[in-house]
Write a structure and sequence with these properties.
12 helices, 29% helix, isomerase, Diaminopimelate Epimerase, Chain A, domain 1, alpha+beta, isomerase activity, 3 domains, 19-stranded mixed β-sheet, 432 residues, PrpF-like, 19 strands, 30% strand
Length: 432
């Protein structure tokens, strides 16, 4: 389309130039120089566009993350070619600055994400699945591509994007003009349902003043994000070791330390430990770390990474993979504000080695489930405030509050849900 416009625009300029050239030679020369410059620029732009490999894309916010959404059909059939495309889109690696200014990334893990969305297989369609997608976490300072886990926040926009692009049509209507889209996440082989409002023409409506997402300004339409049977997303088990609490050995302060943790795999695997363990038993100044995680408290990050890697090994996962498992430390509600808002548990999580400004949604969902499993560290913290009849676990994170709804049947997790919002930010082409 752009090339056609350039050609037509160029012909228009050429015709105008021909009219002016009928005047004096000096005037014609002046006009020719003035008008040929845009023609040269347009031609140059056209050549760059062809050389820079544009690909159709949408830029969307889901929850507290933003990401590039691509259709699988627009990517090479040879998946070994995908990594260089993703890295180019995001502007990675950026080892010196970590800002990804040369691409669409934003220098933090929640802004360095891609979703590849496609049609389900015939078998998946028979199972009621509307859309298939793969989540990609792109490294910032390096060229790492991690597809070992899923992103809860961006999962909330898969259904919206699939409708926008005609990948699927709304076939599960619910009351009040809403529709449920069932997606299959290829990373974890799990099913996720998203329910959101649509118009009579089947277009997702995202700008209703219904709910807020902590960390995002303003009201927006309610998107119900529900992970179906989320246990064992990576390890095949809700409790990968079979125990609600384990002990990890790390090296700290010239000696071995033994850290009590809970290793839970629901939506994504996560290592949970207590704030008090870090602050009191290891003697780390966690309050200072939360105020300024760099550089004076870098040793805290190093300890947390040791714990995360040890937890990964215990869960049977690759310890070198930055995206999975996540690590989060939890605490009991402490402030009058926590009591006023009926907070059950407080969490701080790391993503790609950096403190998250809110909470990765899969960590929040996993924490909601863990808080309902007797014997886990989150359960021990939340049991005094959490009602057994309560449908939700109320979690405070650095940007606010989120209510997570785990549905358990004995030891089986039927589902876990949360409310999200989203917004379309851009649709066009992205160069890599």
């Amino acid at each position: 389309m752009a090339t056609i416009w350039q050609r037509n625009r160029g012909e228009h300029l050429y015709r105008n130039a021909s009219v002016f050239v009928q005047g004096s030679c000096s005037r014609a020369l002046h006009v020719s120089r003035r008008l040929l410059r845009p023609l040269t620029l347009l031609h140059s732009y056209s050549m760059r566009a062809e050389a820079s490999n544009p690909i159709s894309a949408s830029f969307l916010r889901g929850g507290t993350s933003k990401g590039i959404f691509l259709q699988e059909k627009d990517l090479p059939s040879d998946r070994s070619q995908w990594d260089k495309i993703f890295i180019g889109i995001m502007g990675s690696p950026d080892p010196d600055h970590g800002r990804q200014l040369n691409g669409m990334g934003g220098g933090i893990s929640s802004l360095s994400k891609i979703c590849v969305v496609g049609r389900p297989t015939a078998l998946q369609q028979n199972q009621g699945i509307d859309v298939n997608y793969t989540f990609v976490q792109v490294g910032i300072k390096d060229s790492s591509i991690d597809v070992s886990g899923n992103c809860g926040n961006l999962s909330s926009m898969i259904g919206v994007y699939a409708l926008d692009e005609g990948i699927c049509s709304p076939r599960r209507s619910v009351p009040n003009g809403r529709v449920t889209i069932r997606s299959f996440n290829a990373n974890t082989s799990k099913i996720i349902d998203t329910t959101f409002p649509i118009t009579e023409d089947g277009v997702a409506t995202l700008d209703l003043s219904e709910v807020t997402t902590a960390g995002v300004a303003g009201l927006a339409s309610k998107i119900v994000l529900e992970f179906v049977e989320p246990a064992g997303a990576r390890t095949g088990k809700l409790l990968p070791t079979g125990q609600p609490e384990d002990t990890l050995e790390i090296s700290w302060d010239s000696s071995s330390k033994y850290i009590p943790v809970s290793l839970v795999d629901a939506t994504n695997p996560t290592v949970f430990l207590s704030f008090d363990t870090l602050n009191d038993e290891l003697g780390l100044n966690m309050n200072e770390y939360l105020r300024d995680s760099q550089p004076s408290t870098r040793h805290v990050s190093e300890v947390l990474e040791q714990i995360r890697r040890a937890g990964a090994i215990k869960m049977g996962l690759d310890p070198s993979a930055q995206a999975q498992p996540k690590i989060a430390f939890v605490n009991k509600p402490l402030t009058p504000n926590d009591e006023e808002h009926n907070i059950d548990i407080v969490v701080h999580a790391l993503s790609m080695g950096v403190l998250h400004k809110a909470v990765p949604m899969t960590v929040g969902l996993c924490l909601g489930v863990a808080s309902k499993i007797q014997g886990t560290i989150p359960w021990k913290i939340a049991k005094n405030t959490l009602s057994h009849s309560s449908e939700y676990v109320r979690i405070r994170h650095p940007s606010g509050i989120v209510d997570v709804g785990p549905q358990l049947d004995g030891e089986e997790v039927r589902s876990v849900s949360v409310l999200r919002t989203g917004r379309r930010l851009m649709k066009g082409v992205v160069w890599w």
